[in-house]
């Protein structure tokens, strides 16, 4: 049964982030990695989040850290990529008891062993 990918592309999950989360492919651009990480949060896929987080900044992420937040939608605003570093600005909406809230971030991604990984948010 097909379902639309949570990352906001409008594509079928298996043709979009499912190929990264379930089928072993790896995103070739930082914006695609950002989308797949959002989908991993929606699906509470701790293993994928850790795999795509830079080892120097990856927290001790537990299953409990992923529970309790219902992620709603993702908007990728900008994406700038170099050979070894990239930035992605995004807004991710999530549900709270008070209503929908927005997490707005500019993220830094870095290539490690020829794969993009999330490094950290960029301080404004």
From TrEMBL:
InterPro entries listed in its UniProt record: NTF2-like_dom_sf, SEC_C_motif, YchJ-like_M
Pfam family of the protein (one): SEC-C
Q: Per the database record, which ranges form the YchJ-like middle NTF2-like domain?
A: 30-120
Q: What name is this protein filed under?
A: YchJ-like middle NTF2-like domain-containing protein
**Which source organism does the UniProt entry give?**
Reinekea blandensis MED297
């Amino acid at each position: 049964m097909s379902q639309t990918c949570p990352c906001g592309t409008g594509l079928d999950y298996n043709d979009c982030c499912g190929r990264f989360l379930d089928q072993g492919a790896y995103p070739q651009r930082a914006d695609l990695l950002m989308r797949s990480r959002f989908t991993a949060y929606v699906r509470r896929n701790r293993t994928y989040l850790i795999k795509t987080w830079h080892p120097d900044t990856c927290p001790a992420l537990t299953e409990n850290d992923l529970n309790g937040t219902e992620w709603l939608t993702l908007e990728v605003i900008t994406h700038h990529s170099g050979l070894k570093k990239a930035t992605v600005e995004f807004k991710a909406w999530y549900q709270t008891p008070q209503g929908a809230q927005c997490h707005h971030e500019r993220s830094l991604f870095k290539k490690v062993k020829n794969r993009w990984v999330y490094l950290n948010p960029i301080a404004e």
